[in-house]
Amino acid sequence: MKRLLFLGHRWLGIALCLFMALWFLSGVVMMYVGYPKLGTAERLQTLPPLASAGCCVNLEQALAALPAGARPRSLRLTSIGGRPVFIAGLEKNRFAAISGHDGKAVGSIGAEAALAAARAFLPGQPARYLEALQEDAWTHSRALDGHRPLHVVEMDGSDDGRGRTLLYVSASTGEVVRDASATERTWNWLGAWLHWLYPLRGGALDGWWTEIIIYTSLAATLLALSGLVVGLLRWRRRPYANGSRSPYRKAMLRWHHWLGLIFGLLTFTWILSGLLSVNPWKVFDAGTPKPAPARLELAAGTDAPGIGEVLQRFRADGLEARELEWLTFAGTTYVQARDGQGHSRLLSWQRQGVVQAALAPGVLEAGGRQLLPQAGLAATHLQTEYDWHYYQRTYHSMTGHMEKALPVLRLEFDDPAHTWLYLDPRNGALVQRLDDRLRLKRWLFALFHSWDWLPLLQHRPLWDILLIVASLGGFLVSLSGLVIGLRRLARPRG
């Protein structure tokens, strides 16, 4: 049995040590340069204020331009190429764009429209149209599926030190949906592109990518665990004749042994938590009903104000709106305005509505109850500080672009999964959902993989130092194992 353990560890190491070394190396890169993304806050900063005078057709006319029978699930008024445009989210992850000037559906987006959108996004930079594509190394996200194909425009920011940035423009709406700077692209070849095995995406193995991640990580977990066991079995409490507690005489074997004893447990927890990040075999799905998605109600009538009036009312309250979004919460339809500095206001979609900074606590709680009507509400808590389960990560990290505003209302339900819902008072948006299994994932993935522990996250560079040292240890364990494996393969057989 012990021999099988040793042989299994040896041949798993030969097969996987290169992968593991690259995982540790790329993980350090991802601490500082994330996969390209375009978050809401970053996008809003590029938009001009919406002009109230002669801005837009009324909402009824805009909705009439949607395909027959289409019912919008989301609706925004934004600017694309310097012009006001309504963006409607439809079923099956589809989008439709309607001109705010004349209320007509925007036709197919070509190269000229893509260039205009790109120039408005990064004004003053030379723009060059490259191509239209379905997917490339920087657009693997499923969130972009409704915008494909994507027009690629290269912006030359050499004069201001930005380098050449690639902008990806939606063929459905003409909106810039992703930016990838030269810095992001360069470092990501050593970062997320390697870490998530993206060389396997987009080709013949694309359909098997998730399974490859799962079973490669599972095999690497067994490799780390078996190495830890072998290392402990080979360590002697009483030194050998040469004074060493390791039986290995060759330097590389001895270094691998000692490095494994020191960093083996960390290596095991990192690889295992990385496996759990993709929710293999749906182990973190509780199987209980999830919150019912809110339906957008946009019934037109004499009570509905005009767009210009709405913008004037927000301006009178001190907010210069760059984007409007309609939403329905607790049976009432609102329009939310956002500026480029992270501020927002809310207005009931009727003439007698009052501009407000947030929903009233009673309205927020009532709307939250409707999200899980089959469960009872056990407790409510208005959270004003980040804690173990609700916290903000740096923007470039995997989930850092997701807004985690404070305060936030936490609703705790008495369903079998003990669901918690976190609602943003600014608009009633469900910003986080947790249940028993997802709280377990918080331990097994977020803590053990990225060390998301508030005392560390709030006291950088302590977090950086500890993660880099630990990553270096895992890298050296893997690299030494790779060297040993290659030497084993190169050994003459006779």
TrEMBL record:
Fetch the PANTHER family from UniProt.
BLR3280 PROTEIN, IRON-REGULATED INNER MEMBRANE PROTEIN-RELATED
Sorted alphabetically, which keywords does the UniProt record give? Membrane, Transmembrane, Transmembrane helix
Q: Which InterPro entries match?
A: PepSY-ass_TM (IPR005625)
Task: Using the record, list the residue span of the signal peptide; answer none if the entry has no such feature.
Answer: none
Keyword check for Transmembrane: yes
In terms of Pfam families, this protein maps to: PepSY_TM
Look up and give the organism this protein is from: Azospira oryzae
Chain segments annotated as transmembrane: 12-35, 212-235, 255-276, 465-486
Its protein name is: PepSY-associated transmembrane protein
